[in-house]
Amino acid sequence: MEPLFLKPVFHEKMWGGRKLERFNYDLPAGDIGECWAISGHPHGRSEVENGEFAGQYIDDLWKNHSELFGHPEGKVFPLLTKILDAEASLSVQVHPDNEYAWKHEHELGKTECWYIIDAEPGSYLIYGHNAKNKQELDQMIESGDWDDLLRKVPVKTGDFFYVPSGTVHALNKGIMALETQQSSDTTYRLYDYDRVEKSTGKKRELHIQQSEDTITVPHKDPKLDIQTQIDGKNKFTTFVQPPISPYFSVYRWEIKEPATLKHNIGKYTLISVIDGSGKISVDGKDYDLKKGVHLIVPATIKEWTVDGSLDIIASESGEK
Fold first, then answer.
1. What residues contact residue 146 under an 8 Å CB cut-off, 6+ apart?
2. Boundaries of domain holding 285
3. Using omega within 30 degrees of 0 as the cis cutoff, is the peptide bond preceding 154 cis?
4. Are 170 and 280 in a shared domain?
């Protein structure tokens, strides 16, 4: 069995730019804000580029070859990996939980997290809010008291943020992040700086009622238990995993010498190479790894070796 190498899908955004070219992608024209790297979502389906499943899509494999994912119970491929280029600030937004999303949007909720690949000096996130209760939240939104409502958090390259559903948040100008999330494309815009779409000449739609319905009040920062293990010249970091994060675990692998790996808590592993080059070896066969490559190591592969000089963000589904 081979690892499944995937073809990225790109999305133009009013806040995007051209920095994704640093991953050697052949970007389409325009301001590209999102690389959907590993996805079974209908808004950006990942196509397999190699082996016996070449030309097939992840969502189809999920339905028709469930052995690749350990015969999961879920109806949809549960995770989505993106790289985001915030040339300008994203809207201030919130995502619903599973219950609200299934009821109103007919898809999964959206808990997500960010590994900060790059942040320009002085960069910050919107992360959480200062309202003490629901009444105060609604009043501050109605009056547009954004400076007092929104929490600004300084950010630097290498930081990690866990963003549960219900969290007010936004990536701001000058940040590039790898995002691991539930497979959902539901976003409720709370505030968008009164920007106007070039194509329509109108302000983008806001979702004030949905935002008020889904924002967690009061905001509480998640208590993460980030752990690092040194193994020879290699460094392995666990950013988040169940039970803190019920939907996924996320890791950083900093590889300098051969490392033999296996699935940790999940049945299959998602891999994104954010820097460097090297190889992954499965059953005596080598496959090249380089910056910007994304792949899934399926459940049918129990053990593999990674070698080279590589910086990798990996993830696993927390769902059974």
1. 92, 191
2. 227-317
3. no
4. no
Rounded CA Rg of the chain: 20
The residues of the chain scoring below 50 in pLDDT are none
Distance CA 54, CA 135 (A): 53
Same domain, 177 and 240: no
Q: What was the pLDDT predicted at 170?
A: 98
Q: Within a domain: residue 163?
A: yes
Indicate which CATH number applies to the domain containing 132. 2.60.120.10
Question: Structurally, how many domains does the chain consist of?
Answer: 2
pLDDT digits (tens, 9 = 90+) for 251-300: 999 999 999 999 998 899 999 999 999 999 999 999 999 999 999 999 99
Residue 245 CA neighbour count, 13 Å, CB half:
29
Contact 225, 278 (CB under 8 A): no
What are the catalytic residues? 189
8 C-beta neighbours (distance < 10 Å), count: 25
Shared domain for 32 and 141, answered yes or no, is yes
- pTM, two decimals, is 0.96
DSSP string for 88-146: SPPPEEE---HHHHHHHTSS----EEEEEEEE-TT-EEEEEE--SSHHHHHHHHHHT-H
Clarify whether residues 22 and 101 are in a common domain: yes
Does the residue 269 lie in any domain? yes
3-state helix, strand, coil split of the chain in percent (to 5) is: 15, 40, 45
- In a domain? residue 281: yes
Q: Where are the alpha helices (DSSP H) in the chain?
A: 58-64, 98-104, 134-143, 146-149, 208-214
